[in-house]
Design a protein that fits this description.
The complex is a heterodimer of chains A (193) and B (352). By secondary structure, chain A is mainly alpha-helical. Chain A has eight helices and no strands. The longest helix of chain A is centred in the first third of the chain and has 32 residues, at 37-68. The termini of chain A are close together. With 352 residues, chain B is mostly helical. Chain B has 15 helices and no strands. Chain B starts with 21 loop residues before the first helix and ends in a 16-residue tail after the last helix. The chains are: A mainly alpha (193), B mainly alpha (352). Chain A binds chain B through residues 37, 150-151, 154-155, 157-159, 161-168, 172-173, 176-177, 179-181, 183-193, and chain B through 66, 69-70, 72, 111-112, 114-118, 120-121, 123-124, 129, 132-133, 135-136, 305, 308-309, 312-315, 318, 320-322, 324-325, 327-329, 331-332, 335.
Chain lengths: 193, 352
C-alpha cells in the first residue's frame, strides 16, 4: 500500500497513529464518557460526524485562506467551523434524545475544544492532503477515537465489579487502563510501512 | 414402627465429587509449565534458570507486598503469581539482564494485576503486560538473541545476564563469537523470514534447536503440555484451536498468493511465540470472554492479528500484542455474544 493512498491514511489514523492511544489527543472526553458503552457509542458517532464536517470545511476554507494569503486566520477559522458543527450535533441530540443529552452532559459541547478534532484539521492541512485523502484521514481519526472509547468503556464496565484497592479507584484506574491499552496499541507501530 | 435402616447415605443432588478450586487449577498449570521450563534450562543453561527464578520470586513478592499494602490477606497461596512469573521468564530472551527482568515482573504484576484487585479482576494477562513494558523500555536487550545449546551453558552465565542494576547490559558479541557455531547471525527464525525470506526447517522449530525467547522455541513440547491441561479440562481448548486455526488459515491464504515472500502455514504455527501464546497466554481465564461463541471469535481475532502484525508490521513478532488486543476486546466480545436466555423470545416489532 502506498503511504499516499486513502486506504492507508484511513488505517494510519485509525490504528497505527490512533489519535487517543498513540498521539494522546482528546483525552478528556476519552476519560470522561468512557464509563458506559451506552454513552461511549453515541459520543463516538458524534465525534466522527464533527470530524467529517470539520475536515470538509477545513479543506474548503484552507483554499480560500491560501488564495487571499491570510493563512494566519487558519486556527480561528477552524475553531469556528468545529464549534458550529458541534452546535448542530447538540441541537440534534437534544431534540432526538433528551436522555442521551443529559447523559453526555458537558462533554457534548466540549467536543468544540476536543484537541483531537482541531489536531486532525491541522494535520491534514500541514500534510497537504487532497480532498479524498482528507476525507479518509478524518474518517479514520473519528473511527479510531470511537474504537478507543468503546474498548475503554467495555473494560471499565467489566471493572465495575472488581475489588480495586482504595488507592487505585476511579480516575487512577482509568488512567492505568488507558496506559495498558496504549501499550497494546504499540503493536500496530509500523504496520503497512 | 421403626424406620428401615439404610446403609447408603442419602443426599440430594447434585452429586459432585470435589469441585475444582482456583489453586488446584493453577497448580496444574504450573505442573504443565515445568517441562517447558526444564527444556528452556536445558537449551540455554543457568542463565535461563536464573531468569525463571528471578521472575517467579519477584512476581510472588510483588503480589504479597500489594496484598499487604491494600490491607488484605495475602493471596500468594493460589499459585497464580508463580504462573505469571514462569510465563514472563519464558517469553524473555535468555540473555536478558536479571535486573530488567525483575523490573518487568514488578510492573506486570503491579500494574497488570494488583492495581485491579488481584486474581480474577485483571483485564489483561499480567505476564504479557510485563513483557510489553519490557519491549517498550528495554528494546535492545529484548531483541538480542543468543544461540541455543551453547557449550558450557551449565557452568557460566551469558555475560549480559549478570549486568548490575540500572546499567546498560554487557555486550554479548564476544561471547557469542566464542560459543556459537559458524554462521550464527543472532536472528530468530521469524527475523530471518521477515528480512531475508529464509525459512527454517520445521523439525528444528518443533524441537526448538533455534534461537528465540527462553521457553518459546520447542513448539512440540508446549503443545504436549497444553494437551495435558486440556485432558484435565483445565484449559479452554477452543481458544487454542481458534488462535492456531485462524493463524494457519490467514497465513495459508497469503502463502497461496505469493509463496516466495510469505511463510507457509507450518512455519507460522511453529515459529516464534505463537504456540506458547496460544496454549498458555491467550487461555488466561480472566482476560478471555465467557461465552462459548465469544471464545471462538476471541481466538480467531488473536490468530489473525498475529499474522497481520508479523507480515505487515514493523515488528517480526506479533503474538504478544495480538493477545493484549484480544484481552482488550474480550468484554465487548462477551457482550455481543450473550446467549439467549431460556424461554426468552425475541422482541417483535410493534404492531403498526
Amino acid at each position: 500500500m502506498s503511504p499516499e493512498s486513502p486506504a492507508f491514511l484511513f488505517l494510519h489514523a485509525f490504528l497505527i497513529n490512533n489519535f487517543v492511544l498513540a498521539l494522546f489527543l482528546g483525552l478528556c472526553p476519552f476519560l470522561g464518557v468512557s464509563a458506559k458503552i451506552k454513552t461511549a457509542v453515541p459520543m463516538g458517532l458524534a465525534v466522527i460526524f464533527v470530524m467529517l464536517v470539520a475536515s470538509l470545511c477545513a479543506y474548503g476554507i484552507n483554499i480560500l485562506l491560501v488564495h487571499f494569503e491570510i493563512e494566519y486566520l487558519r486556527l480561528i477559522c477552524y475553531i469556528a467551523v468545529i464549534a458550529s458543527a458541534v452546535q448542530l450535533v447538540e441541537m440534534t441530540v437534544k431534540k432526538l434524545s433528551p436522555t442521551l443529552f443529559r447523559m453526555l452532559g458537558i462533554y457534548l459541547p466540549l467536543i468544540t475544544t476536543n484537541c483531537a478534532i482541531l489536531g486532525m484539521a491541522l494535520f491534514q492541512t500541514f500534510n497537504e492532503y487532497n480532498f479524498v485523502q482528507s476525507l479518509a484521514y478524518s474518517l479514520g481519526a473519528g473511527a479510531g477515537f470511537m474504537l478507543a472509547l468503546v474498548l475503554m468503556a467495555g473494560l471499565r464496565e467489566k471493572l465495575e465489579l472488581a475489588s480495586v484497592p482504595d488507592a487505585c479507584t476511579s480516575a487512577a484506574i482509568s488512567f492505568m487502563l488507558a496506559g495498558l491499552l496504549s501499550l497494546a496499541f504499540m503493536g500496530f507501530a509500523g504496520l503497512g510501512g | 414402627m421403626t424406620a428401615p435402616r439404610t446403609k447408603a447415605e442419602l443426599r440430594s443432588s447434585p452429586h459432585l465429587h470435589k469441585p475444582m478450586s482456583v489453586d488446584m487449577i493453577m497448580r496444574h498449570v504450573v505442573y504443565a509449565l515445568l517441562p517447558v521450563c526444564a527444556y528452556a534450562v536445558y537449551q540455554f543453561g543457568i542463565s535461563a534458570l536464573a531468569l525463571l527464578a528471578v521472575c517467579t520470586l519477584v512476581c510472588v513478592g510483588t503480589e504479597h507486598l500489594f496484598c499487604r499494602l491494600a490491607g488484605r490477606a495475602s493471596t500468594i497461596n493460589d499459585w497464580s503469581a508463580v504462573i505469571t512469573g514462569l510465563l514472563l521468564a519464558l517469553t524473555l530472551p535468555p540473555s536478558f539482564p536479571l535486573w530488567m527482568a525483575a523490573v518487568a515482573s514488578f510492573f506486570g504484576m503491579a500494574v497488570g494485576k494488583m492495581f485491579f484487585g488481584g486474581l480474577g479482576y485483571n483485564v489483561m494477562n499480567p505476564a504479557l503486560v510485563g513483557r510489553a513494558f519490557a519491549q517498550a523500555a528495554f528494546t535492545v536487550p529484548m531483541t538480542t538473541w543468543t544461540p541455543a545449546l551453547a557449550p558450557g551453558r551449565f557452568t557460566e552465565f551469558i555475560p549480559s545476564t549478570l549486568t548490575p542494576p540500572f546499567l546498560v547490559p554487557t555486550p554479548v558479541d564476544e561471547w557469542i563469537a566464542r560459543v556459537a557455531t559458524e554462521g550464527f547471525t543472532g536472528a530468530t527464525p521469524l527475523a530471518l523470514m521477515k528480512f531475508e525470506q529464509t525459512s527454517t526447517d520445521t523439525l528444528q522449530l518443533l524441537t526448538g534447536t533455534v534461537s528465540g525467547s527462553a521457553g518459546e522455541t520447542s513448539a512440540l513440547l508446549i503443545l504436549l503440555c497444553g494437551l495435558y491441561l486440556i485432558a484435565r479440562k483445565m484449559m479452554d481448548w477452543r481458544i487454542t484451536a481458534g488462535v492456531l486455526g485462524s493463524a494457519a488459515a490467514v497465513s495459508g491464504l497469503f502463502y497461496l498468493i505469493r509463496p516466495e515472500i510469505y511463510p507457509d502455514p507450518l512455519f507460522t504455527l511453529f515459529s516464534g511465540g505463537l504456540m506458547l501464546g496460544a496454549v498458555f497466554m491467550a487461555t488466561d481465564m480472566v482476560a478471555s470472554p465467557e461465552t462459548s461463541k465469544g471464545v471462538w471469535i476471541y481466538g480467531a481475532l488473536i490468530g489473525v492479528l498475529t499474522v497481520i502484525i508479523r507480515l505487515f508490521g514493523g515488528l517480526n513478532e506479533g503474538v504478544m500484542y495480538a493477545i493484549l488486543l484480544g484481552n482488550a476486546m474480550s468484554p465487548l466480545i462477551s457482550r455481543v455474544t450473550q446467549p439467549r436466555r431460556y424461554g426468552a423470545v425475541k422482541k417483535e416489532k410493534a404492531p403498526a
